[in-house]
Amino acid sequence: MIEVSSLCKSYGAAPVLHDVSLSLPRGGVTSLIGPNGAGKSTLLSLIARLIVPDSGSVTVDGLDVTRTPGPVLARRLAILRQENHLVARLTVRELVGFGRFPHSGGRLTAEDRAAIDRALDYLELAPLADRFIDQLSGGQRQRAFVAMVLAQDTDYLLLDEPLNNLDMKHAQAMMRLLASAAHDLGKTVIVVLHDINFASCHSDRIVAMRQGRIFAAGTPAEIVTPDLLGELYEMQIAVREIDGQRIALFYG
Amino acid sequence: MPHERRARLALLVLALLALSAILAFMTLGARGNWGFVLPFRGKKLLGLLLVGHAVACSTVLFQTVTANRILTPAIMGFDSLFVLCSTVLMALFGSTMVAGLDPRLVFAGNVLLMVGASMALYLWLFGGEERSLHRLLLIGVVFGIFLRMLAEFVQRMLDPNEFMVLSDMLFASFGTIPATLLGIASAMVAGVTLWLMPRLSRLDVIALGRPVAVNLGIRWRAEVLAVLAAVSVLVAVSAALVGPVLFFGLIAASLAHLAVGQSAHRYLLPAASLIGVTMLVGGQTVLERVFAFNTALGIIVEFAGGITFIALLIGKGRR
Amino acid sequence: MTRLAAAVLVTAGLALASLFVGVSNVSLRGILAGQELDWLVLVESRLPRMLALLLSGASMAIAGLLTQIVIRNRFVEPANTGTMESAGLGLLVMTLVAPGAPVIAKMAAGAGFAMAGTALFLAILRRVPLRDPMLVPLVGILLSGVIYAGTAFVAYRFDLIQTVLAWTQGDLSGVLRGRYELLWLGATLAAVAWLAADRFTVAGLGRDIASSLGLAHGRVVALGLTIVSLVTAVVVVTVGMIPFLGLIVPNIVSLALGDNMRRAVPWVAVSGAALVLACDILGRVIRAPYEVPLGTVLGVLGSAVFLVLILRSRDRAA
């Protein structure tokens, strides 16, 4: 359970989050959607203690993220930001291996190696395992980073726009993988998504944000409606039900 | 894994190179009494070894905590900071007192001051908003000039006698390494190196950059500041022994990356250190024994380093 | 106009003060009473020094402005485009090749090297695909360092380090009558830049706009950099390198006045002269009877102001 209470954050004079409170139960996939600048990524970074709030607090299973020792939290919660510039020259296997650092402290055990192999297989990276990251395509690199946080084997998985750089096939595979991680492995997955139809089809919950506040939260059926999305994005959006999935239309 | 084998091979070759440079330095052109030559050259060698190791390691560490391949402590003004610290210490306490003290004690005080000041500098440069690389570099370079100018200004404000005492301490060069400091410098470098040993894998995590490292449970600020303290000690040692060298670390670190072809610190740090030692000892041997120059090594290093740096900047823009 | 007049007045006051500050006591009363010693110091030392300050300050500041307009970057000046260090190298080479050559010949050699150094800098800039405004001065500072290291190496080989140090550091304590007059030439060149100001302003809009306005862009840029090289060589050979002056003065003036060169030039000239005079007076009184060289005072002040300018400017590339 993640509890966010009265969180405020501003960069310089510009406020990014106003008094955000939210509680996310365990399990399932939660998507954060909303227009640019809504504060989605900031909220995600605050939950994962990558940035420090101006006021308010975040707890994960009752642990205050700013006070809990780093390694303790790193075994419980993993985050992947959208841009991962890597200066270090590493192979895919080495990068994924870093996911085990909170568990092993740098010395890999047999158990760690098994977890690394599982993560590589899960993301179909086994054939690329000994390639250097800088030799991969953008999509492959993105999957390698996801494999790293998966190898971290945490209850909570936070991903900021994980579909960036992925083509349709891999984007779909990624969302299915996240859903199965949530439903089969019992993880709690929170993703920032720009594509509201992926959010609609693969989430258990959607949290919509706008101008640094929570705009609405609920099931896809509650959120993916013409009125709500129209107000959220300030544009006309139609919603059709196709094969039992709610699809937003906004291309015309 | 093939690339691990390659890295180990590279280390072996570098070790052989360093060893032959050391052998050449100790033996080439030696005439007469070995009982005199060996201790005399040995002291010089020790100084060069310390500087090569300290500059190379401090550069690699600094690049690790700044997730960067171009920034070095010298370029960001840390060497100038040491000069300023020494000058300020002298200005505050006066030469009579400083000259009366054990130079090792003065040095230790300098290092302490330096560690504090460099942490403040780091927090100012990297603690706030994120800046673009070029802006950061320009700020660092200009700030380095500012520190140097300020040190020069304070030196001019000193009594000419005090200035003499100070200049003995400050204008050390590759030709005139102060022998009194070798003991304490060795102890400091050895201490830092031993402290680093068990931290190598944590350094690998830090090199992934702040977001990923924090995600993996690194206590970023504390870890980085500790590494930075180590960097400051190493910078202080090299600046005290041979004076500021702006670009040497950059060359050593860049070559080390090329040589081992990967980023694990257990390969990178020894490689950089060996390259640094080879360059300094080999360079000094060639200059002293072949060309009969004495103090020009620093100038040549600056010349080559400046060109390397411009090439790196241009190359980086290209990609 | 009245504000400019006030600035000129302040500068004149500083110039007057400059005449009466120093180790040997020159008093107004002594001058008026026709005391021989006072007159001697005034004419042989103080007056030349004051004029050298005025002329070098004004022309260096204009050279800085011109460099910024022609290279189209706020943060450049002769000291960080390879110009000033190359001029020093030229002087050294001349000293080695023809030790007895007159000052004007040394100056010419320095100017030639300065032009070559600037051209090298521009050639490097052309190879930098992404012209981040921060990268331009950075490359320039590094290049200047490399050229200086080369100079120092040559000087070291031929035991001329002391000679090089004299050029490196802006120091006016050695300026006497007969040793500064070349600076008039520098000031004249700076005045030429003023006359051609409109062209440079147009050239400063960039090659495309300048060409469509019918300006021979390449030729104007070459003319500008030639003037800069000559002025720099003159200043280096007479008073030594004065860093940061050409950088900070035009920037401060442009903050107040905008970027029209014709309007800015008189302000830049007057402020440059005033700043140099003030720094020199400070250097003379702060540690009397010793002198802190102008280059050092200006170095501290200039690098600090430069730093503030960088920190203030918006990060476009972020």
TrEMBL record, chain A:
The UniProt keyword set, sorted, is: ATP-binding, Cell membrane, Ion transport, Iron, Iron transport, Membrane, Nucleotide-binding, Transport
Query: According to its record, how does it sit in the membrane?
Result: Peripheral membrane protein
Coiled coil: which residue ranges? none
A matching Pfam family: ABC_tran
Q: Which domain of life is it from?
A: Bacteria
Which SUPFAM superfamilies does the record associate with it? P-loop containing nucleoside triphosphate hydrolases
List cellular component terms (GO): plasma membrane
The text of the family note is: Belongs to the ABC transporter superfamily.
In its UniProt entry, what is this protein called?
ABC transporter related protein
UniProtKB/TrEMBL annotation, chain B:
According to its record, what are the GO cellular component terms? Answer: plasma membrane
Extract one GO BP annotation from the record.
siderophore-iron import into cell
The way it spans or sits in the membrane comes to:
Multi-pass membrane protein
Chief localization: membrane
Q: Name one Pfam family in it.
A: FecCD
GO MF entries: transmembrane transporter activity
Q: Which domain of life is it from?
A: Bacteria
- Residues annotated as transmembrane: 45-62, 74-93, 105-126, 133-151, 171-197, 267-287, 293-314
**Keywords per UniProt:** Cell membrane, Membrane, Transmembrane, Transmembrane helix, Transport
Q: Where in the cell?
A: Cell membrane
For this chain, the family text in UniProt reads: Belongs to the binding-protein-dependent transport system permease family. FecCD subfamily.
The entry's protein name is Transport system permease protein
Source species: Paracoccus denitrificans (strain Pd 1222)
TrEMBL record, chain C:
Q: Which keywords does the record carry?
A: Cell membrane, Membrane, Transmembrane, Transmembrane helix, Transport
State if Transport is listed as a keyword. yes
Q: Which one of the record's GO molecular function terms can you name?
A: transmembrane transporter activity
* Main location, first listed in the record: membrane
TM regions (residue ranges): 50-71, 107-125, 137-158, 178-197, 209-228, 234-257, 264-286, 292-311
What CDD domains is this protein classified in?
TM_ABC_iron-siderophores_like
One GO location term (cellular component): plasma membrane
Q: Which SUPFAM superfamilies match?
A: ABC transporter involved in vitamin B12 uptake, BtuC
UniProt KW Transport keyword = yes
Task: Return the Pfam families for the record.
Answer: FecCD
* InterPro entries, per the entry: ABC_BtuC-like (IPR037294), ABC_transptr_permease_BtuC (IPR000522)
Bilayer topology reads:
Multi-pass membrane protein
What is one process in the GO biological process aspect for this record? siderophore-iron import into cell
Gene3D superfamilies named among the record's database cross-references: ABC transporter involved in vitamin B12 uptake, BtuC (1.10.3470.10)
Similarity comment text for this entry: Belongs to the binding-protein-dependent transport system permease family. FecCD subfamily.
Q: What is this protein called?
A: Transport system permease protein
Q: From which organism does this entry originate? A: Paracoccus denitrificans (strain Pd 1222)
